[in-house]
Amino acid sequence: MCGIPGLKGVHLDYVRYSDVILPEALQPVYNLVQDKEYPEFDFCYCATCREKFKKTSGIDIQTVEDPTALLEWRQYRYDSVTRLVNRLSKEVHQKNKLITAAVFPYPELARTICRQSWDEWHLDAVFPMIYQNFYNKPVEWVKYAVQKGITDTRGKVPLFAGLYLPELSGEDLKKAIDYSLEAGASGVAVFDFGSFSEAHQEAFKTALLERDTGK
Q1: What are phi and psi of 47, to 5 degrees?
Q2: Is the pLDDT of residue 211 over 90?
Q3: Do 132 and 138 contact (CB within 8 A), yes or no?
Q4: Cα gap 121→62, rounded to integer Å
Q5: What contacts 89, CB < 8 A, 6 or more positions away?
Q6: How far apart are the C-alpha atoms of 79 and 14, rounded to whole Å?
Q7: Which residues are CB-neighbours of 107 under 8 A, at least 6 positions away?
Q8: What is the pLDDT of residues 107-116, one digit of tens each?
Q9: Where are the domains positioned within the chain?
Q10: Could you say which DSSP state residue 17 is in?
């Protein structure tokens, strides 16, 4: 892939385990109540993962009464995703390309939901999906999530706040952009382009104009 003429970099998406706990607002969509980790939604217990974990820890996960309470098992899965990302990062950088990733809102939450310990990833930029409505949070939560992401990564990687257009009015998009930049984000990204309305375009213009003029 890195040999494609004109390619500037590689972007990683869905580089994680499946959600062990869905964001609150999505649970009713699937008729679920996930107030804690439940075995049927926890991954991965395949033969390969079990054997590798046993080899590194000496623990047979199938003999553990409550695997969700075992810190070593949790850390093993954080590390599994991190090793994959950093291996890809090394390969991409050897080709003199950039590598970025879409991740869950901030590392602490990402570890809980899908085992992404993304503050340990070797990336050139990160795009946390700060979809506040998924978590039943107000638009102000965007600022909190950006601050958490920057703090957890110690500001070592540019962070672009991912904003979810279908649930943002033009007015709220303007607020989300302002909150993101005030919190230290390098910029914003939006999902999805098909939802990019005229009101959203005006919100972008206003937000950028205000920053250019210092208002």
Answers
A1: -60, -40
A2: no
A3: yes
A4: 29
A5: 99, 121, 122, 123
A6: 16
A7: 116, 117, 118, 119, 148, 149, 152, 153
A8: 999 999 999 9
A9: 9-213
A10: P
> In the prediction, which pLDDT does 128 show?
98
Q: What one-character-per-residue DSSP string does 136-181 give?
A: T--TTHHHHHHHHHHHHTTT-S-BEEEEEGGG--HHHHHHHHHHHH
What is the Cα 69 distance to its own chain's centre? 23
Question: Distance (Å, rounded) from C-alpha 96 to C-alpha 92?
Answer: 7
> Tokens standing for 116?
């992404």
CA atoms within 13 A on the CB side of 89: 17
Query: Which tens digit of pLDDT belongs to each residue from 23-50?
Result: 999 999 999 999 988 888 999 999 999 9
* Interatomic CA distance for residues 140 and 93, integer angstroms: 36
Please say whether the beta carbons of 200 and 173 come within 8 A: yes
CA 197/CA 170 separation, integer angstroms: 8
Start-to-end CA distance of the chain, whole Å, equals 43
In contact, 196 and 164? CB cutoff 8 Å: no
User: Tokens 């340990």 label which residue?
Assistant: 120
Report residue 87 as tokens: 């291996």
- Does 3.20.20.80 match the CATH number of domain 9-213? yes
- Residue 101 β-bridge partners: 12, 126
